[in-house]
Amino acid sequence: MKYYTTQMDAAKQNIITKEMKIVAKKENRTPEEIRSLIADGKVAICANKNHKCLDANGVGSMLKTKINVNLGVSRDCKDYNIEMQKVMEAVNMGADAIMDLSSHGDTTAFRRKLTAECPAMIGTVPVYDSVIHYQRDLATLTAKDFIDVVKLHAQDGVDFVTLHCGITRKTIKQIKTHKRKMNIVSRGGSLVFAWMCMTGNENPFYEYYDEILDICREYDVTVSLGDACRPGCLSDAGDVCQIEELVRLGELTKRAWAKNVQVIVEGPGHVPLDQIEANMKIQQTICMGAPFYVLGPLVTDIAPGYDHITSAIGGALAAAAGAAFLCYVTPAEHLALPNLDDVKQGIIASKIAAHAADIAKHIPGAREIDDKMADARRNLDWEAQWKCAIDPDTAKAIRADRSPEHDDTCSMCGKFCAVRSMNKALNGEYIDIL
Predict the structure, then answer these.
(1) Are residues 346 and 386 in the same domain?
(2) Model pTM above 0.85
(3) Average per-residue pLDDT in the chain?
(4) What is the C-alpha separation between 389 and 412, in angstroms, rounded?
(5) Is 144 exposed, middle or buried (0-12, 13-18, 19+ CB in 10 A)?
(6) Same domain, 320 and 381
(7) What is the mean predicted confidence (pLDDT) over 41-52?
C-alpha cells in the first residue's frame, strides 16, 4: 500500500482516499474526478488526521457551494456552553464549516471539544489565539511563539487555519500612502500589521512560511490564505493594497502546492455589485483556480442589522462567478457577537445564496429540490412543501399564524388562488370563488 501525507499528496499519486469517496458521493461525481481536481489544487478536502469525527466535504467552485459559520467567545460574551449550542445548531442547519474565532478564556479546551464532537470542518486563526495562549501583549510575542500556536492547533485537529501571510513590511508603506477609508478591517491582519509596526520585524507567517507548511503537511491542515487587506467598505474595493496582496497569495499558493499542502484563498469583503464577478475572475487567474473563500461580499455599507441580506446578495453573485466557500454574515455583523437567532438568520441567508449560485452553475442535482417544490405547490401539498423548504419551521409558523378558511388556499388569495383555479379548470371542475 502506498504511503501519502496529505489528500493532495495522495491525489498526485493517483490514490483515492476514503474522504475522496465520501465527497464524490455527496457531489454526484466519480472518485476519480474528485482526485483529479484535488491534484490540480482546484478542490480541497479540509481533513486533519486528528479530527476523527469529521464528515468530509470538498471545497471547490465546481462543487456545491459550502458555507462557513464564524463563532467563538469574546471578553464581553464568554459562555462556552452557549457557543457550543450555537455550533451544534449551525451544523444541524447545514453549516459545512465552523471557524472558532474565540478571543477570551480557555480556548484550547473549547477547540479540542470542537474537534472531538463536531463533524463539520473546523477552522481557526492562530494569530488571535497567540495572545490568549501566552497571556502576553502582542509586541512581546516572537515569530516562534506564533508558529508554535499553529502547531498546537494542527495537533488539536483543526482542519484549516487562516494565516495572514500576504502582507509584508511593504504593506505598511502602502497603507500609509494610499489612505484607505477603512485601513485594515481584518482582525488577524490588523494584529500582524500592528506586530510588524511595533517590532520592526517582517511578518512571521510570511518569513517562516515554509516551516509552517511543514507543520500543515504533517497533520494535513489546509492553509486558508487570509486577505488582510480585504476592503472594509465599497470605497476600498479593488485598490492597490487588495490586489497587491492577492498577487502575493498566488505566489504562496504555488509554494504550498509544491509541498502538497492544500490551499483556500480568502477574498473580499465589501464590493460594489458590478465589481464582484471581476474580483472572482482575477482571483481564479492569479491563484490558478484554488478554491476562493469570500466574506459576503457585502454590496452596500449602510445596512447594519440587515447585513445577512447584503451579504447574501453578494454571495450569490460571487459563487455563481466562481467562489467556492461563503462565510456567513449575520444581522449582528458590525454590531455585536451574534446570538442563536442571528446565527440562524445568517445561515439561512447564506444557504439561499449558495443554492441559487449552484443552480446558476448547473451543479449536478442542484435544481432537483426546486422542481420537487414546484410539484408540491402545484398540488397544494403543504407537507411536501415543508420537506423541500430550506427553513420548514419558519414556513410552517407563518402559515399557522395566519391560517386560511380553506386548506387548499392561503390567507393571501383564498379562493382567488391561481393554482387552485387552474387545477380545477384543467380538471373540468366548477370554480367557486365566492
Answers:
(1) no
(2) yes
(3) 95
(4) 19
(5) exposed
(6) no
(7) 98
Which residue type occupies 89?
Answer: E
Q: What is the mean pLDDT of residues 28-52?
A: 98
Contact 377, 419 (CB under 8 A): yes
Nearest of 86, 149, 150 to residue 118 by alpha carbon: 86
CB 4 within 8 A of CB 15: yes
Contacts by 313-316 with C-beta closer than 8 Å and gap 24+?
313/273, 313/353, 314/271, 314/273, 314/276, 315/350, 315/353, 315/354, 315/357, 316/352, 316/353, 316/354, 316/356, 316/357, 316/360
Q: For residue 234, what is the domain's CATH number?
A: 3.20.20.540
> Residue 258: what pLDDT?
98
DSSP states of 22-78: HHHHHHT--HHHHHHHHHTTS-EE---TT-TT----EE-TTSPPEEEEEE---SSS-
**Range list of β-strands (E), 215-269:** 222-225, 263-267
Range of the domain at 394: 368-426
**Element (H or E) spanning 107, and its range?**
helix 107-117
Query: What residue has cell string 492569479?
Result: 286
Single out the residue in 333, 360, 387 at which a domain terminates.
Answer: 360
Per residue in 183-213, pLDDT (tens digit) is 999 999 999 999 999 999 999 999 999 999 9
Q: How far apart are CA 299 and CA 317, in angstroms?
A: 10
The three three-digit cell numbers of residue 90, written as one number: 449551525
First and final CA of the chain: distance in angstroms?
Answer: 75
- The runs of H, that is alpha helices, within 135-239 are 143-155, 169-178, 187-199, 204-207, 209-219
- Say yes or no: 261 and 380 in one domain: no
Structural domain contains residue 9: no
